[in-house]
Structures are given as structure tokens and as C-alpha cells.
Amino acid sequence: LVSSLSLLLGTTITISSNHWMMAWTGLEINTLAIIPLISKSHHPRAIEATIKYFLVQAAASTLVLFSSMTNAWSTGQWDITQLHHPTSSLLLTTAIAMKLGLVPFHFWFPEVLQGSSMATALLLSTMMKFPPITILFLTSNSLNSTLLVTMAIASAALGGWMGLNQTQTRKILAFSSISHLGWMTIIIIYNPKLTLLTFYLYSVLTATVFLTLNTTNTLKLSTMMTSWTKTPALNTTLMLTLLSLAGLPPLTGFLPKWLIIQELTKQEMTMAAITIAMLSLLGLFFYLRLAYYSTITLPPNSTNHMKQWHTNKPASTSIA
């Protein structure tokens, strides 16, 4: 309960603050609140994930503080929106990329998610990304566009490539998160509201996937292949949600991608739009594989589960 309240408090402080010190305080409260949740199971893997998470977040918070102090030193301003010093801007972009898990600071994210429970992984993928994205939103008018676009395209590429050969559902969702962050950061300078729209839709869809996998207790693809025997209706919903995350046209997940491509074309960044659209096909491949596993493909061996939606008929007596 204390951790949950602290998470809400940290997020609220960061997203509602104008002063750098308050924003930094909120980020620190968030980090300290999520640590007990990651390490709750006392498994060596969970402890390793906790240490990795803490070290990365502590380093990123230090950079945020250093960036704001440098900016205050040169401009005399502690206001978040007044980030005019170029070195401060660069340092802040690096710090937020570390906090979010953007390429090339992405290494910790899949490992931490793999060491966490499904509920904690959901928090790390959605709620914990909200404060850093808010800081990017507030400072978007003074960020380095070339650096952000490069990191965004690299994130979309790596998220797609690395997701292809994973069998653990949490790692697949971690790389899915990295590629979605690519879509969010490529547009943040030109149309920050689109970034927020993408983030909100991504959060809702990811929450649906994580909660479904948590309900069916699906940690690996092999388990997913048999979960349709337990909850067929839930698995159908999961398939639609996964296809929406992939960004297939009739579904909701297509909307932010369409708008982002449109905005990039308006900004005469046609090559960037084409590149990121092509890279999303990599993500589509593993989402389709997940969707197949959840509903369409039957496992090669017969399942040991009773098909729970069948009515129990009395065994017919054989006539000799």
C-alpha cells in the first residue's frame, strides 16, 4: 500500500511541477517506491533486476540534476520550460533516454522486466514511463531534433529485431515497449500532443495484454499455446489487442501511427516516416506470431487440460 501511494505521489509531483528540483524529487520517489515491488519475490533473478533498475535510475536522476544545475548556472532559471543551454539539453535527453530505456540505453529494460512479476512489469512499462515522457513534453521546444530522431529510429529497429527471437512473453513486451517509445520520441518536437496520445493508447493496450497474461499465468509462448483451452473468450480479446498494438488499420493502435506518419510528412521528413513505418513491420511479425499462438495455432501434442467450456457428459457405456 505504501509503495502504491508513493508511486502515485511521485508521478503526481513530477507531472505537476514547474521547478527542476520538484521534478527530480518526484522521479526519486517513484524509483524508491517501485524497488520493493520488483524485489518482492526474493528470487535471485528479482534481486538482480532490482539492482540493475536502481543503478540505471540513480545514474539517470543524477544526470537530470546535473543538467538542471548547468542550465540554472548559465541562465539563472529553474523553470522546466526554460531549458536554453545546449549542454543541459543534451544531458537531459540522455537522462530521459536512460529512464525510458531508449536505444542505446535500453539494455536494462528487458532484463528488469524478465525479473519482475507481471503486475510490476505492467507498472514499469506504463506508469513509470509517464513522468519522463512528461518532462520531454515540457522541454520539447528546446531539445535536439537530430539526436531524438536518430534514437527513435534506432529504438524502432532494435525493438523489432530483438523481439523476433524471444520466447518469454515479458521480454517480447519489453522490446515492444522500446519500439513504441521510438514512435513517441520521433514526433515529440514537432507535435508533442501526438506523443501523449500514442502513450495513452499504448498504455491501455499494454495493460490489457499484461493483465490477460497475468490471469492465464502465461510466461512463455509454449504456455500461451495451451491457454486457449482455459479461457477462449479472453484469448480472442488478447489476439485483437495484440493486433491493435501492432498497428493494423481497422484497430485503434493504427490511429497514432497514421497521425505520426502524416505529421512527419508535413514536416518534410518523408524518409524518416518511411523508415519507421517499414521498421514497424518487424514488430508486426512477432505480434502476429503471438496472436497465432493465442488463438489460431494448436500445439503439436494433445493438451492435458480439460476443455473447460465443454459440458461434462456422462461416459457412454460400451455395448459388448
Automatic annotation (TrEMBL):
<dbReference type="GO" id="GO:0008137">
    <property type="term" value="F:NADH dehydrogenase (ubiquinone) activity"/>
</dbReference>
<feature type="domain" description="NADH dehydrogenase subunit 2 C-terminal">
    <location>
        <begin position="284"/>
        <end position="315"/>
    </location>
</feature>
<dbReference type="GO" id="GO:0006120">
    <property type="term" value="P:mitochondrial electron transport, NADH to ubiquinone"/>
</dbReference>
<dbReference type="InterPro" id="IPR001750">
    <property type="entry name" value="ND/Mrp_TM"/>
</dbReference>
<feature type="transmembrane region" description="Helical">
    <location>
        <begin position="89"/>
        <end position="109"/>
    </location>
</feature>
<dbReference type="Pfam" id="PF06444">
    <property type="entry name" value="NADH_dehy_S2_C"/>
</dbReference>
<feature type="transmembrane region" description="Helical">
    <location>
        <begin position="121"/>
        <end position="139"/>
    </location>
</feature>
<keyword id="KW-0999">Mitochondrion inner membrane</keyword>
<keyword id="KW-0812">Transmembrane</keyword>
<dbReference type="GO" id="GO:0005743">
    <property type="term" value="C:mitochondrial inner membrane"/>
</dbReference>
<keyword id="KW-0520">NAD</keyword>
<keyword id="KW-1278">Translocase</keyword>
<keyword id="KW-0813">Transport</keyword>
<feature type="transmembrane region" description="Helical">
    <location>
        <begin position="233"/>
        <end position="251"/>
    </location>
</feature>
<feature type="transmembrane region" description="Helical">
    <location>
        <begin position="271"/>
        <end position="292"/>
    </location>
</feature>
<comment type="function">
    <text>Core subunit of the mitochondrial membrane respiratory chain NADH dehydrogenase (Complex I) which catalyzes electron transfer from NADH through the respiratory chain, using ubiquinone as an electron acceptor. Essential for the catalytic activity and assembly of complex I.</text>
</comment>
<comment type="similarity">
    <text>Belongs to the complex I subunit 2 family.</text>
</comment>
<keyword id="KW-0679">Respiratory chain</keyword>
<feature type="transmembrane region" description="Helical">
    <location>
        <begin position="50"/>
        <end position="69"/>
    </location>
</feature>
<feature type="transmembrane region" description="Helical">
    <location>
        <begin position="20"/>
        <end position="38"/>
    </location>
</feature>
<keyword id="KW-0472">Membrane</keyword>
<dbReference type="InterPro" id="IPR010933">
    <property type="entry name" value="NADH_DH_su2_C"/>
</dbReference>
<feature type="transmembrane region" description="Helical">
    <location>
        <begin position="145"/>
        <end position="165"/>
    </location>
</feature>
<protein>
    <recommendedName>
        <fullName>NADH-ubiquinone oxidoreductase chain 2</fullName>
        <ecNumber>7.1.1.2</ecNumber>
    </recommendedName>
</protein>
<dbReference type="InterPro" id="IPR003917">
    <property type="entry name" value="NADH_UbQ_OxRdtase_chain2"/>
</dbReference>
<dbReference type="Pfam" id="PF00361">
    <property type="entry name" value="Proton_antipo_M"/>
</dbReference>
<keyword id="KW-0496">Mitochondrion</keyword>
<feature type="domain" description="NADH:quinone oxidoreductase/Mrp antiporter transmembrane">
    <location>
        <begin position="17"/>
        <end position="282"/>
    </location>
</feature>
<feature type="transmembrane region" description="Helical">
    <location>
        <begin position="196"/>
        <end position="213"/>
    </location>
</feature>
<keyword id="KW-1133">Transmembrane helix</keyword>
<keyword id="KW-0830">Ubiquinone</keyword>
<feature type="transmembrane region" description="Helical">
    <location>
        <begin position="172"/>
        <end position="190"/>
    </location>
</feature>
<dbReference type="InterPro" id="IPR050175">
    <property type="entry name" value="Complex_I_Subunit_2"/>
</dbReference>
<keyword id="KW-0249">Electron transport</keyword>
